[in-house]
Design goal:
16 helices, three-stranded antiparallel sheet, alpha+beta, four-stranded antiparallel sheet, 7 strands
Length: 357
C-alpha cells in the first residue's frame, strides 16, 4: 500500500461513470491505506477529490466517479498573500478559531466541560492526534524521524507556546462576548478511582507546591523552560514520584485543564447563524483543514524567520552550544517541515504504535 495517492493510479483504476462499492474498495483501487476513524475518512475523501471528482451516492455506501482531472488540483488556501480578500496573512486566524471553538462547544451536551490545551487544539484541528504523544515523547520522535532532538525541542517549545497563547486568546474573545467563562484548574485522579475530577482548593495548593519543588529542583524558573530543554518527561516523572512518596497523599495523577462554563443556548443560536456549522459536516471539514493549513503556514514562516535571522547575524560562525547553531542549518527548516507534517497536517500517518515500541 502507498502512503499517498498518485495520478497514475487514478488514471489506471478509475473511469468516469464508474460506481465503487464503498470507501474501503475505493482505497483498495487507489492502492492507499483506508483511514479508520470518520474524521480521517472525511479528510481522506477531500484529498482523493483533488485527483478525481468522486461523489457519495445518497442513502448508500457507494461512490460514483463524475470526473477525472488532468492534473492534481491545488489545495484551496484563502490566506495567500496574493488573495485580495485576505486581511490576516501571516497571523493566526482568530475569527476562524472562534467559529471552530463555538462549534466544538455547541456539539457538546455538557454545560460545564474540562479541556486541556491539547484537547482544545485537537478539537479545532490546529493540531492532529499525534501532537500530544509526540510532544511528551520527544526522544522517541527523534528516533523515529531521524530529526535532531534539539530541533524537535525547539519545534515544541516555540509551537506550543504560540498555540497556547492562540487558544487562550480565542477563549478570551468568547468570554468577552459572554458565551463562556473559563478558569484554569488542576484535574486529579485518586488511588482506586481513575475518573478525573477538578482538584479541591487544598489539593490545588498541595499540587502547586509539588510542581514548584520539582521545577526548582531541576534548575528551572518557568514551565516553558522545561519543554524548551526537552525535560518535560523527566519533570512529570519527578512530580509523580513525589506524589507516590507522600504517604498522606491519595492523588496518583494530575494535569492542568480549563474549566469552561457554556452559555449553551446562546452558543447554539450563534452557531446556527454562522453558516449552520453544526448541521453542515462538509463545511466543518473544510474549516478544519483551513485551520490546519493556517497553523502549518504560521509555523513555517516563523521557522524561516528565525533561520534567516540566525544566518544574517552569525553566518556559520556560531558556538555549537547556542541555539543559533541549529537554526543556521538547512536541516532546521527540513526538520520543522517533517515534524509539522506529523503533528499538524490534517492527513497524518498514525505514529502512536511506533512511539510505544
Amino acid at each position: 500500500m502507498n502512503q499517498s495517492i498518485t495520478m497514475e493510479t487514478v488514471n489506471e483504476k478509475l473511469e468516469v461513470g464508474q460506481e465503487v462499492k464503498n470507501y474501503k474498495v475505493l482505497c483498495d483501487l487507489l492502492e492507499v491505506e483506508k483511514k479508520k476513524c470518520k474524521k480521517s475518512r472525511d479528510y481522506h475523501l477531500l484529498e482523493i477529490n483533488r485527483y478525481a471528482n468522486v461523489e457519495k451516492i445518497k442513502g448508500t455506501q457507494r461512490f460514483i466517479v463524475n470526473k477525472i482531472f488532468d492534473e492534481v488540483q491545488p489545495k484551496v488556501d484563502k490566506r495567500k498573500s496574493d488573495n485580495p480578500d485576505n486581511k490576516r496573512n501571516g497571523r493566526f486566524d482568530y475569527e476562524l478559531t472562534e467559529i471552530l471553538l463555538l462549534d466544538l462547544f455547541a456539539s457538546s451536551y455538557n454545560e460545564v466541560s474540562y479541556y486541556t490545551v491539547g484537547k482544545l487544539l485537537e478539537g479545532i484541528h490546529a493540531v492532529n492526534g499525534n501532537y500530544s504523544i509526540s510532544r511528551h515523547n520527544q526522544k522517541a520522535l527523534a528516533k523515529i524521524t531521524e530529526v535532531k532532538l534539539k530541533i524537535i525541542n525547539e519545534f515544541f517549545a516555540k509551537t506550543h507556546n504560540s498555540l497556547k497563547n492562540f487558544i487562550e486568546r480565542g477563549l478570551a474573545n468568547l468570554e468577552k462576548r459572554f458565551l463562556i467563562t473559563t478558569e484554569k484548574v488542576f484535574m486529579v485522579k485518586q488511588l482506586g478511582d481513575f475518573s478525573a475530577r477538578p482538584a479541591t482548593r487544598k489539593e490545588s495548593q498541595y499540587l502547586m507546591k509539588v510542581h514548584r519543588q520539582v521545577l526548582i529542583g531541576l534548575g528551572f524558573t518557568k514551565e516553558s523552560q522545561i519543554y524548551a530543554s526537552g525535560f518535560d518527561k523527566k519533570f512529570y516523572f519527578e512530580v509523580e514520584k513525589k506524589l507516590k512518596e507522600d504517604e498522606s497523599n491519595k492523588i496518583v495523577e494530575c494535569y492542568k485543564a480549563f474549566r469552561i462554563v457554556l452559555n449553551y443556548d446562546e452558543i447554539k443560536n450563534v452557531c446556527n447563524e454562522i453558516e449552520d456549522l453544526i448541521l453542515n459536516n462538509d463545511e466543518r471539514i473544510t474549516k478544519h483543514i483551513e485551520m490546519s493549513e493556517s497553523i502549518e503556514k504560521r509555523i513555517s514562516e516563523s521557522a524561516f524567520s528565525r533561520h534567516k535571522k540566525a544566518k544574517t547575524e552569525y553566518g556559520f560562525s556560531v558556538d555549537k552550544d547556542r541555539i543559533e547553531y541549529i537554526r543556521v542549518q538547512d536541516e532546521y527548516l527540513e526538520g520543522f517541515d517533517k515534524i509539522k507534517g506529523i503533528v499538524i497536517s490534517p492527513f497524518p500517518d498514525d505514529i502512536k504504535v511506533k512511539m510505544k515500541k
